[in-house]
């Protein structure tokens, strides 16, 4: 079969994840969890593997790290590979389920270095996470000319009405600093 009739999509972490991320420890506080998401975003920029966005999925009650995600759009030539989407994909592979909200699983939460775009907010609903915590805000990403798409207050109300808790601006200055680093390094703006 030709490449066009049988394409294969493969998503893998960049090599630095193994040295940066400790999957064997519990993360106790929102700040610890957010610092991990921010450190993933920073490493992605500093090591030239993608845009300034990082995410992590945790078991809500135990603080066990399930997966991380980093923006991989340019690295893997796929517009859907935002940090949150990579974190969802990897977490669902780890737990062996298309949803993180199965009765046999503990509740999961998403920590992301920046407020989710329209695609990632939609993915949040279908991922099965019960809580979303973000650092930098939409306006912080917009300063770099990243297009975040149609996200409205009603978008968040929709998620909250379905039992997903939203927590905003956790360690926002630290998260915003990674966006600024990307800007000073003339990082590629790949949408809009």
Mean pLDDT: 94
Strand order of the largest sheet: 2-1-3-4-5
Tell me the β content.
Answer: 5-15%
User: What does the main sheet amount to?
Assistant: 5 strands, mixed
Compressed to H and E, one letter per element, the order equals HHEEHHEHEHHEH
Helicity level: 25-40%
Rg calculated over all Cα atoms: 16 Å
**What is the general shape?**
globular
Estimated structural class? alpha/beta
Low-confidence stretches: none
Counted beta strands: 5
Number of helices: 8
Could you describe the 3D structure shown?
The chain has 192 residues and is of the alpha/beta class. Helices cover 39% and strands 15% of the residues. It has a five-stranded mixed beta sheet with strand order 2-1-3-4-5, sandwiched between helices. A hairpin with a 5-residue loop joins strand 1 and strand 2.
Compact overview of the structure:
By secondary structure, the protein is α/β, with parallel strands linked by helices. Helix content is 39%, strand content 15%. A five-stranded mixed beta sheet has the order 2-1-3-4-5, sandwiched between helices.
Keywords, separated by commas or semicolons:
192 residues; alpha/beta; five-stranded mixed sheet; 8 helices; 5 strands; globular
Write the layout of secondary structure elements.
Blueprint: H1 17-20, H2 30-46, E1 54-59, E2 65-70, H3 73-76, H4 83-95, E3 108-114, H5 118-127, E4 131-136, H6 138-142, H7 153-161, E5 165-167, H8 172-184
Parallel strand pairs: 3-4, 4-5
Antiparallel strand pairs: 1-2, 1-3
Helix pairs in contact: 2-8, 4-5
């Amino acid at each position: 079969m030709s490449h066009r009739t049988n394409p294969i999509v493969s998503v893998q972490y960049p090599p630095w994840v193994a040295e940066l991320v400790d999957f064997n420890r519990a993360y106790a506080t929102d700040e610890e969890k957010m610092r991990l998401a921010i450190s993933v975003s920073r490493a992605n920029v500093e090591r030239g593997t993608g845009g300034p966005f990082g995410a992590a999925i945790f078991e809500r009650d135990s603080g066990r790290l399930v997966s991380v995600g980093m923006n991989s759009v340019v690295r893997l030539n796929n517009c859907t590979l935002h940090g949150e989407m990579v974190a969802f994909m990897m977490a669902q592979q780890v737990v062996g389920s298309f949803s993180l909200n199965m009765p046999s699983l503990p509740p999961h939460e998403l920590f992301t270095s920046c407020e989710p775009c329209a695609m990632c907010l939609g993915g949040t609903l279908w991922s099965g996470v019960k809580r979303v915590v973000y650092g930098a805000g939409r306006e912080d990403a917009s300063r770099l000319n990243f297009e975040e798409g149609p996200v409205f207050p009603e978008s968040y109300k929709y998620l909250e009405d379905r039992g997903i808790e939203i927590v905003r601006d956790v360690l926002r200055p630290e998260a915003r600093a990674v966006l600024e680093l990307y800007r000073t390094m003339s990082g590629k703006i790949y949408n809009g």
